[in-house]
């Protein structure tokens, strides 16, 4: 039996992609591309996935996901990965989207749990982090775990 939950089927991290291990960064790229296709109406699957709610509720969902992808791409470049920049529009800009501190705390704990198993060295380097940096699309606000999060 798999320990995969609905929240693991598509995880669009609010955390900065710098915290992800290689497997996590590649998965995030793939899942954000899937999200882009959903938001652009190019696929019928996942259209009601809770991870997409904050994008759907933004002023321009497609601009938001393109901005999200831009920052994943920038992190991939820093690591020497070869993600395809043709998969997103680098000219799309979107204002920040709010994310609650409770959501960031939840995601941080979730990520550390994954890293403890997948990448012990990265886990050990991150476990004492005091100030969590958000993905550049998001701005931190007070609050509990987001309503759309599947816990």
The shape is: globular
Outline the biggest β-sheet: 2 strands, parallel
The whole-angstrom Rg is 15 Å
What percentage of residues falls in helices of 4 or more residues?
A: 40-55%
Give the overall average pLDDT: 92
**Overall SS class:** mainly alpha
Query: Could you give the distance between the termini?
Result: 19 Å
Which segments are poorly predicted (pLDDT under 50) over 5 or more consecutive residues? 1-7
What is the CATH C-level name? Mainly Alpha
Beta-sheet strand percentage?
A: 5-15%
Order of helices and strands: HHHHEHHE
At CATH's second level, what is the architecture? Orthogonal Bundle
Q: Total domains, how many?
A: 1
Structure description:
The protein is mainly alpha-helical and about 150 residues long. It has one domain: Orthogonal Bundle (Endonuclease V). Helix content is about 45%, strand content about 5%. The protein contains 6 helices and 2 strands, in the order H-H-H-H-E-H-H-E. Strands 1-2 form a two-stranded parallel ribbon. The chain is globular and about 40 Å long. The model is unreliable at about 1-5 (pLDDT under 50).
Summarize the structure.
With 151 residues, the chain is mainly alpha-helical. Helices cover 46% and strands 5% of the residues.
Q: Which descriptors would you attach to this protein?
A:
151 residues, mainly alpha, Endonuclease V, two-stranded parallel ribbon, 2 strands, 46% helix, 5% strand, globular, disordered N terminus
């Amino acid at each position: 039996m798999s320990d995969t939950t609905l929240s693991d089927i598509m995880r669009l991290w609010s955390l900065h992609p710098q915290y992800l291990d290689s497997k996590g960064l590649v998965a995030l790229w793939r899942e954000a591309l899937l999200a882009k296709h959903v938001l652009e109406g190019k696929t019928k699957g996942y259209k009601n996935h809770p991870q997409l709610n904050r994008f759907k509720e933004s002023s321009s969902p497609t601009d938001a996901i393109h901005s999200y992808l831009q920052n994943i791409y920038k992190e991939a470049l820093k690591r020497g990965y070869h993600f395809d920049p043709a998969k997103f529009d680098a000219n799309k800009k979107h204002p920040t989207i709010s994310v609650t501190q409770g959501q960031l705390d939840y995601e941080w704990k979730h990520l550390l749990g994954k890293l403890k198993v997948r990448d012990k060295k990265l886990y050990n380097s991150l476990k004492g982090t005091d100030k969590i940096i958000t993905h550049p699309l998001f701005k931190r606000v007070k609050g509990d775990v987001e309503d759309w999060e599947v816990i």
